């Protein structure tokens, strides 16, 4: 089997967000998170619920498994029984996310998606992030507008953030978590071929970096087969992270 591409390491890193998650709704946003969620369901998290994003529950191959009306979807969201993986135009050291605007919200330099459901997501169910192009424009010291709530703001209102948790951030360079005393961002793993210096150079704030940083785990032969031949034979993953061998 050919060498593992960077995109495939990203798929594995996203899939791991739902490892042993039990019967919860996985809501991946983006091509690689979607492949990752389907891979997790097909392997180590068989109880995951997958949605088409509209009104049905689906199997990894797209077969309809059930109906998910919007009111039932909201019940899962507000009860902590969903794990969403969102995107971020900006994210800071405490996991605050911005998808609304760049600059002052009253007179923004650039208008983006809007706050949408980011605050509800982060306060009510676990929320991870997928960032296909790791750069200082995205990983910033302070977001211009808080849409998704980070650990520092959640700590100010613990009663309204009892389900708040940001398990991981996955980028095209590595995996990050908040397993530090102050819940600031930590480098958890590097994708093979990436160095710590590359990550630091592409990050606009001081990361916590352990003395020894592991590499993102290797996919098994079965996982590669599923990714390449069953879940994503059209290589949509390469649209977000162009295929290249690690290293």
TrEMBL record:
UniProt name for this protein: CoA-transferase subunit beta
Native species: Streptomyces cellulosae
Family label: Belongs to the 3-oxoacid CoA-transferase subunit B family.
The organism's place on the tree of life at top rank: Bacteria
Database matches in SUPFAM superfamilies: NagB/RpiA/CoA transferase-like
SMART domains associated with the record: CoA_trans (SM00882)
């Amino acid at each position: 089997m050919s060498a593992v591409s960077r995109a495939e390491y990203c798929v594995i890193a996203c899939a791991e967000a739902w490892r042993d998650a039990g019967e919860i709704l996985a809501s991946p946003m983006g091509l690689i998170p979607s492949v990752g969620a389907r891979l997790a369901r097909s392997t180590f998290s068989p109880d995951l619920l997958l949605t088409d994003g509209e009104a049905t529950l689906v199997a990894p191959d797209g077969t309809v498994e059930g109906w998910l009306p919007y009111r039932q979807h909201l019940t899962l969201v507000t009860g902590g029984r969903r794990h969403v993986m969102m995107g971020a135009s900006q994210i800071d050291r405490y996991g605050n996310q911005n998808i609304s605007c760049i600059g002052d919200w009253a007179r923004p330099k650039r208008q983006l998606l809007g706050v949408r459901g980011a605050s509800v997501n982060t306060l009510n169910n676990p929320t991870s992030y997928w960032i296909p192009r790791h750069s200082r424009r995205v990983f910033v010291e302070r977001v211009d507008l808080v849409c998704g709530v980070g650990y520092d703001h959640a700590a100010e209102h613990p009663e309204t953030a009892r389900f708040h948790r940001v398990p991981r951030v996955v980028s095209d360079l590595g995996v990050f978590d908040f397993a530090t005393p102050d819940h600031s961002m930590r480098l958890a793993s590097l994708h093979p071929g990436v160095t710590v210096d590359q990550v630091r150079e592409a990050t606009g704030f001081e990361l916590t970096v352990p003395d020894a940083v592991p590499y993102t785990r290797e996919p098994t032969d079965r996982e590669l087969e599923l990714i390449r031949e069953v879940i994503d034979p059209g290589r949509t993953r390469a649209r977000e992270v162009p295929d290249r061998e690690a290293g």
